Amino acid sequence: xxxxxxxxxxxxxxxxxxxxxxxxxxxxxxxxxxxxxxxxxxxxxxxxxxxxxxxxxxxxxxxxxxxxxxxxxxxxxxxxxxxxxxxxxxxxxxxxxxxxxxxxxxxxxxxxxxxxxxxxxxxxxxxxxxxxxxxxxxxxxxxxxxxxxxxxxxxxxxxxxxxxxxxxxxxxxxxxxxxxxxxxxxxxxxxxxxxxxxxxxxxxxxxxxxxxxxxxxxxxxxxxxxxxxxxxxxxxxxxxxxxxxxxxxxxxxxxxxxxxxxxxxxxxxxxxxxxxxxxxxxxxxxxxxxxxxxxxxxxxxxxxxxxxxxxxxxxxxxxxxxxxxxxxxxxxxxxxxxxxxxxxxxxxxxxxxxxxxxxxxxxxxxxxxxxxxxxxxxxxxxxxxxxxxxxxxxxxxxxxxxxxxxxxxxxxxxxxxxxxxxxxxxxxxxxxxxxxxxxxxxxxxxxxxxxxxxxxxxxxxxxxxxxxxxxxxxxxxxxxxxxxxxxxxxxxxxxxxxxxxxxxxxxxxxxxxxxxxxxxxxxxxxxxxxxxxxxxxxxxxxx
Length: 543
Description:
single chain; FAD/NAD(P)-binding domain; eight-stranded mixed beta sheet; five-stranded parallel beta sheet; flavin adenine dinucleotide binding; Flavin_mOase-like; N,N-dimethylaniline monooxygenase activity; FAD-binding_Monooxygenases
C-alpha cells in the first residue's frame, strides 16, 4: 500500500482501522487465514497503537509480561524474549513490529493515513472510508481497532498558548524531548502520571506534580525473571492460557474466593503484606480477597492498609496528607516503581489543585490560586484520554439511514458485546464500548477471533450484511450497567466511566462480568447462528 494514490478509490473485502494489538491480529486473521483482500490504515508513523504514541519516560505494561502478549501462536510465544515481570514500552513496540514482519503484514498497512469519515451504502452493502491522505477505500467489512486510550485529553487553562517552554501530552510524546536538568511540571497522577513522575524525578532539576485526586497505588514489583520462571511460562503454556481465559480479569493469577472478614485481622495483614511485596495493582485488588471491589467495608480494610504504607513511606507530613486518598479504592488499580518514595526527594514538590487550583499558564509556567508562579521549562499533561468512544465520535461515521455514530451514542456509547452496534452493518469494533474490563491482549484475541468467525459466517451464508438488533444492544447495555452497579467502581470518579472529560455524561463503558463469562456468551452467539443480529434480508424486506 506504499504507493496508494490520492484521489483513487481502492476496492477491498475488508478495511481495518488501527495497527495496534487488535488491528495487527485482525489483519493477520483476515488476510492470512480467511484469504481476504484486507488492508489496515493508521494515522501514526509506525505500527504499535498505544505503544507507538506513549513513549514517555517510565512507560510500562501493568499486566505481567507472560500474559501481555499474543497466545495464538505458540512458536511466537516461545521466541518472545521478555526478561522482566512487566514490559517497557520500547520492547512492546519492537515485539509488535516483529509480529507484523513475521506474518508478512507490513506491505498491507498504510501508515500516516487517518480515517476522516466512513459511510455505509445499503444498496451495495459496502463501506466507503475517506482518509486524510485523499485515499478512499470501499470495503464490505469495516473493523475498527481505534484503541481504548488514544483520543488525547488536553486540559484547557487560560494562557496555555503563551507558555514559552515545551507543552506535551504523554499520549503524543516527542522523541526529541530530553528532561535532564529541566524544571518539569506534570499535571495528572493516574497510571501514566505515576509512571512519568517516578521516572523523571531522578533526572529533572525540579519536578512539580499538580495533583487533583490522590491515588491508591501499590508497588509493581518489577524485576528480572529467573530462568526457572521463563521455563515455567513456556512449559505451562496451555495451562496458563487456559487459566487466563477462564478467569475474570485475565491477569494470569487465580482470583481470590476468600472474603475479607472470613479471616482474622492478623491473617488479613499477612495477606496484604505478602501481595504488597510481590507487587501488582490487579493482584492487590483481586488476588488478596474476593470482595474488595464489591463490599464497602472490605474495600476500606484494603484502603487502610495502603494508607498506612503511605504514612510509613512519605516523610513530610503535609506532602503525606496531600498524597493520602480518603475515598474508595475503586479506580483502575495502580502499581508503581517507587511513586510515594519520589516525594521524599528534595527536587520534587506537590501541589494539590483542589485546594490550590491552577489559575493560568504564563510564558514562565503555572500560576496557582495562592499567587505562586511555578517556573517550568516543560509542562507534561498526563491527563489521560477521552476513553473508549472518544476516537469514534471525533470521526464522521455514518450508518444506515444516514445516522451518525455520534447521534446514535448521544446518550452514551452503546454496543452489543463491545463489538457491534445497531444501524452500522458489517462494522465490528475491537474494544468498543461495553467490552470486557480485563488485561487487554486476551480480550483483543477473543474479540478478533470472534469477529473473524462472524465475517466467515457472513461470507459463507449468502448474507449481505448483519448488524446487532436494537433491542439486543439495549439489553447488553443494561446488563453491563447492572453488573457494574454490583461493584463499587461506579462510585469513584474515574476515566472508566468518562468522569475525566468535562461535560461528558457519566456512563458504564465496560462489561465487568469477567472474561470467562464473556467468552461463553460469544460462543453461544456464534453456535446459535447469531440470533441477536439482523441481516440485510430482515431489514430490507418489509415484515
